[in-house]
Write a structure and sequence with these properties.
Shape: elongated
Order of helices and strands: EEHEEEEHEHEEEHEHEHEHEHEHEE
Radius of gyration: 22 Å
Strand content: 25-35%
Distance between the termini: 46 Å
Length: about 325
């Protein structure tokens, strides 16, 4: 029998852990989801066992391995033997970690020009546990370093910065509205999300008690309904392809609205912001997470809020 090829031999020792990198400022929310933690290093929470649902994780490190190293060069060589692209999340031994990083291929992703797709190249994450041990995960949940999705911003078109949330949500969903589709934007004023949907070519029904920014209202594929987001029934709106909501309300009220639309069968795709006023409502979060075929996540551009996504065909 031939000896094993050293270039394909496994690098590192399996840990049986999953790593969860908390969204900045929301470590407590993440710990509520994934406890008991084995170890906490900055925002990185290491937990025994396979991945758990973790909406407050900016990035999940799958199957991380421990790699013993005797030198800076050996550390870089071990990471390069696994794959090319790595993002360092420093949790200690900062200078030594930076020296290892300097010997790896440079990873400086350019901001995405929306609606470009998310990067497809594998991007791993690593940290230095101590001077002689690397913890590295070749496979992570986010295609962006530390889950930080960045875009080439439009500083003249949209009326506020809320458009970045919808850009990020649609990019991560991998599906976007387009010509021939009809979108409902609830709580639309001043119109950042309506602007995104209209620029993608969809027909947009914008609903709010406050007016839209004049430039958004003037877009030919935007129609405005002055009303509460909760006052109109699905039957009044009719069939739509996308329901988008960045409306400010308590999570339970949004949940009841979504239940109504799901029950109507008149909408296929949903992108909604769940806004927490005061303490995080974990019970409400759990109700959204339990909706079949849906996804709950904290976007890089979210504040104290989560984004709930459900796409047509993902109910199974």
């Amino acid at each position: 029998m031939s000896p094993p090829d050293p270039t394909t031999a496994p690098v590192g020792e399996a840990t049986g852990l999953t790593g969860y990198l908390a969204a900045e400022g929301f470590l407590d929310e993440l710990l509520h989801e994934v406890d008991p933690a084995t170890e906490i290093r900055g925002r990185l929470v290491l937990v025994e066992g396979p991945p758990k649902p973790a909406a407050w994780a900016a990035n999940v490190w799958h199957d991380p391995v421990r790699i013993p190293i005797a030198s800076i060069g050996e550390g870089a060589k071990a990471l390069r033997a696994i794959q090319r692209n790595w993002a360092l999340y420093s949790t200690g031994h900062y200078r030594r970690a930076r020296l290892i990083e300097s010997k790896l291929p440079v990873v400086r992703p350019k901001p995405l020009l929306f609606p470009q797709p998310a990067p497809a190249a594998p991007l791993g994450s690593w940290t230095l546990l101590d001077e002689t041990t690397i913890l590295a995960a070749a496979r992570c949940s986010s295609p962006f370093p530390h889950g930080e999705a960045r875009f080439v911003e439009d500083r003249s078109g949209p009326p506020n910065r809320a458009y970045l949330k919808l850009w990020e949500a649609l990019t991560l969903a991998g599906r976007m509205p387009g010509p021939g589709e009809r979108c409902l934007d609830l709580g639309a004023s001043p119109g950042g999300w309506s602007w995104v949907l209209a620029k993608l070519g969809a027909a947009v029904v914008s609903v709010d008690k406050a007016p839209l920014d004049p430039a958004v209202a003037a877009l030919p594929n935007v129609s405005f309904v002055r009303a509460s987001a909760f006052a109109l029934t699905p039957a009044e709106i009719g069939r739509i392809d996308w329901l988008c909501s960045d409306v400010i309300c308590y999570p339970d009220r949004l949940y009841r609205l979504i239940e109504t639309w799901l029950g109507s069968g008149l909408c296929g795709n949903f992108v909604c912001t769940i806004k927490f006023q005061g303490a995080t409502d974990h019970a409400a979060q759990a109700r959204f997470a339990a909706i079949p075929g849906s996804r709950l996540l904290h976007l890089h551009h979210n504040k104290h809020e989560l984004t709930w996504i459900r796409l047509a065909g993902s109910q199974e």
